[in-house]
Amino acid sequence: MSKGYIAIAQNSGESDYIKMAYALALSIKSTQSEVSNFAVCVTDPSSVPTEYLHAFDHVIQIPWDDHAKNSNWKIENKWKYYYMTPFEETVILDCDMVFLSDVSYWWGILSNKDVWFTTNVRTFKNEIVTSDFYRKTFTSNDLPNVYTAFFYFKKSTMASEIFKLTEIIYQNWERFYYDFLDETRPKHVSGDVCFALAVKILGIENECTSNLESMPTFVHMKSFVQNIPNKMLSEIWTEHIPTYFTYDGQLKVNNFAQILPFHYHRKEWLSDDIIAKLEGKLDGIRRRNENSG
Questions:
Q1: Which terminus in the chain has less CB density within 10 A, N or C?
Q2: Buried b (16+ CB within 10 A) or exposed e, 178-214
């Protein structure tokens, strides 16, 4: 069965999501020993720079109307993943991530379920995030604590049902929020909330989540879940927490080595220097493979 990663890359304002998707694809191809296929979903395939194409196994045009065309967050097309993926088994990712070590073994575990949401994420110190600073809606409404920034599914009846209901919720989110959520409801559409609502309404939380803490997971760099006193940080964590990205693709955050998928969240963190180092690492791997072959 074909397996691979997929992400939607729609540029918004000054944020170049296609560039972020390129960095993500480079990081996957330079770290994963087994599954490294990567599909990027874009509004216009011709908008992808030619020099990026070597990192993308598939460039997919987002089908039907662009439901995020009037949005700043560009998340309204997430319900289309089931229909866009070229893979039988898929992991959905957010573009503003990089992979730092080989997690290929996760796939064998994930395949035991038809759908598997991440429900535990980590601080940069590798502590389990316990704060609900950004998730009051989940706590107050007893929603499954799903994160769609790393989300596995295989082509199956369960996945089809989740995506069909999530489409309806996306297209009628204000009505669903009013009917199912209390006053903590977001004032905007949220991918995590929409998928969590679908899972709760279908009554399948136990079937598509797990109490495993080791995987799937990722480091989530939102400032106020880092177990650091809030008065020491602002929402712009990059102004307070130093990072160092080496030429061989290793990352240290405040001197803590990072090995999990790293969701940097602040788009300005991804510099041209980091991309150059990712390109160099992948080029080195490809040259070694050619010489050994």
A1: C
A2: eeebeeebeeebbbbbbbbbbbbeeebbeebbbeeee
Q: Could you tell me if residue 93 is left (phi over 0), alpha (psi between -120 and 50 degrees) or otherwise beta?
A: beta
Mean pLDDT over residues 128-138, rounded? 96
* Count of structural domains within the chain: 1
pLDDT 10s digits, 227-274:
888 777 899 999 999 999 998 889 999 999 999 999 999 999 999 999
Q: CB of 248 within 8 A of CB of 281?
A: yes
> Is it the case that residue 156 has pLDDT exceeding 70?
yes
DSSP H or E run through 88? none
User: Is residue 33 situated within a structural domain?
Assistant: yes
Tokens representing 51?
Answer: 């020099």
**What per-residue confidence (pLDDT) applies to 113?**
97
pLDDT digits (tens, 9 = 90+) for 105-115: 999 999 999 99
Compute CA 75 distance to the chain's CA centroid, rounded to the nearest angstrom: 12
Strand ranges across the sheet with 256-258: 243-245, 251-253, 256-258
In a domain, 47, yes or no: yes
Alpha-carbon span 210 to 113, nearest angstrom: 10
The CATH number of the domain holding residue 58 is 3.90.550
Residue 291 inside a domain? The answer is no
